[in-house]
Amino acid sequence: MKVLAVYNIKGGVGKTSTAVNLAWYASSQGQRVLLWDLDPQGASTYCLQVKPGKRPDRLLRGKVDAENIVKPTLYDNLDLLPSDFSMRHADLLLHGMKKSQQQLQKILSPLSRDYDLVIMDCPPGFTLLSEAIFHAADMLIVPTLPSVLSLRMLKQVIDFKKEHSIGKLRIRAFLNMVDRRKKLHLHILGQRHRIGKQMMQACIPYASAVEQMAELRQPLPEFNRLAPAAMAYGVLWAEIWDAIPGGLKLPCTPE
Ligand SMILES: Nc1ncnc2c1ncn2[C@@H]1O[C@H](COP(=O)(O)OP(=O)(O)O)[C@@H](O)[C@H]1O
Ligand SMILES: [Mg+2]
Q1: Does domain 2-243 have CATH number 3.40.50.300?
Q2: What is the arithmetic mean of pLDDT over 202-213?
């Protein structure tokens, strides 16, 4: 089982949209996917039309096992660990725990037979919960806006990883909300290779189709598979697939 965390210090950069769309692509290819909504805003829970049930924070408190909280979604091979406002104290909870950095790994380990892939939809911030996420994840996927400050933040995350030698964690970023009519966006697009292997080739255009996801409460490719942004998420998924440390097993092909 591989663990991807869609993470950024900032809110509103496309973490939830990305987590939901990647989960859709992976599950539609036959991977058994668990999307873990860790944000108290519960946006991916909402987007997938799942009712969170009673106090999802009990999972983080260690009061119940993940199998008691997990919910099916409307899509084959895609389950959800939901979130709601009760998760707003996640950081406080971790502060009170011994070995808090390992808490997420501990919660996930009994699920390793049931799922091929876990995708975490992370809350914004750089907190104790973020550090626990870094320890549980094989790969951080960082949606990054084409702006100077966003690129600076990405560098901070890359440096943090180096300084704290979080061994297995791989970082991969991509540009989101790219508007090719803007000079600065075009400039950053052209120069993005200078960031290094952490910056992927795939990028997602600014598109109102992405905004419609919350309105229709569906992953984008579910209601508009041929939209340029939907196809861009498909390309992004292919690039991530190639970069997953140790790789993912190939999905079963139907007879
Ligand atoms: N590529 C995009 N084009 C246009 N709007 C986008 C794009 N990606 C995200 N959005 C919109 O930006 C807002 C924040 O996105 P969201 O995925 O919720 O970000 P986060 O989880 O980082 O807060 C939402 O209204 C979403 O529809
Ligand atoms: Mg979000």
Answers
A1: yes
A2: 98
